[in-house]
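Hi V.,

You were right to ask for the full record rather than a summary. Here it is.
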Amino acid sequence: IVDVLGILTNMGLKPKLRGTRYQDSLPRYHVISQDPEPGTMIKKGRDVVLYISKGRKQTAMPDLRLMPFYKAELLLEQSELKNIILTYAYSNTQTKDSVLAQFPEAFSPVYKDQACNLLISKGLAPTEYAMPRMIDLSVSHAIGLVETNFLNLSQITPRYSALYEPN
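Predicted structure:
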């Protein structure tokens, strides 16, 4: 803009700044538009109206930590942040579908097309049990073993085998 003001003043024209607006394609302080249009023949002393770029629009990254993802998604949309990358992990402290971590960090400046990385809770990690050996046990003993190991018995299917006694 300093160069433009110098050129117009040296030509005997009167530069007038009419406004500024965000422009993704032009850096800050560059001319977005002018009046009269380029190539128009004008006399000395005439006003030249300029609109200047504020550059790319920035916003503050909202604090999404510990928030349910559906709310976080709404906040990102309101902030015009649409490039969301999700990663999931188990958490012993946070409920399923809540935001565990974010990048960029909360309140840092971001552009609307910048990627936002969110770590989302999958809830508690599944507890794994070692299946006890029940072959050669009686039905009643096998049922007792299932119950003492906090397992759920879904069904008992009888099968004939020449190798084992009934039950």
